[in-house]
Amino acid sequence: MARKNGFTLIEMLIVLMIVSTLTIIAIPRLDQLKKAKEEAHMLEQLTDDLLYAQAYALTHKQSVVVVFYNAQGRYRMTERYMLGTVLLDRTLPNPWKIELSTLQNPLTFLANGNVNKSGTVLLKNGKTTYRLVFLLGKGRFYVQKL
What we know:
- This protein has one helix at 9-60; strands at residues 64-69, 74-79, 86-91, 96-100, 107-109, 119-125, 128-134, 141-145.
- The chain has a 4-stranded antiparallel β-sheet with strand order 3-2-1-5, covered by helices on one side. Strands 4-6-7-8 form a 4-stranded antiparallel β-sheet, with no helix packed on it.
- The chain is built from 1 helix and 8 strands.
- A hairpin with a 4-residue loop joins strand 1 (64-69) and strand 2 (74-79).
- It is elongated and about 85 Å long.
- One of its GO terms (biological process) is establishment of competence for transformation.
- Keywords: Cell inner membrane, Cell membrane, Competence, Membrane, Methylation, Transmembrane, Transmembrane helix.
- InterPro entries: ComGD, N_methyl_site, Pilin-like, T2SS_GspH.
């Protein structure tokens, strides 16, 4: 009696068909996941940069000025005044735009970590809009999806 070692052609084709069907179903979902991760990374980067500006103001006992460039995807952080030493100049990924809503430039983190004014900045990515809100008081801010 001979032993059968291996798979038949039909078995291999069935397995290949199942794997290819699962791959076709999973690829569009991976694209959506990639976009969501890029969006979350951009928002986290912006939040980290603003926390850096606040921490820099506290540790160096000097104000840090943050300028948001309206209708562009760009912001800049400098020491003391708008033309001071540049701490950070960041451009957001291509579809993102910054729109000043109630906040007026420049936003300043004072030496005690507080902001000099409150207001709202809108972050737009095509159809998705986020609101970045700066609160008066202890220099707090938050990002909210609209």
